[in-house]
Write a structure and sequence with these properties.
105 residues, mainly alpha
Length: 105
Amino acid sequence: MSTQRQREANRANAQKSTGPVTPEGKAASSRSRLSHGFFSKTRFLSDEAPEEFWSLLADFMTEHQPATPTEQVLVEKMAHSQWISLRASFSQTDFLNNLGTMGAH
């Protein structure tokens, strides 16, 4: 069982934990669900150009000319898989490039 002093300390700490208040903090917080992408409503990250994805999809559709719903789904999956693969490659490159700057502090 907690003491009166612990309950007061908990209440005081709870007053400090009101969540993000700045636009930047709120934007960062809104992306927290990205770590669990299945539940995210975000299709594109802030540094990505959605028109590049749609162009990739259009190119795949033109090249493969899906004739059935199944073929269309498969072409869409190809475009999505390529997009995610590129995202992973760019993220890895950024991470590795930042490793060198982290040791410089």
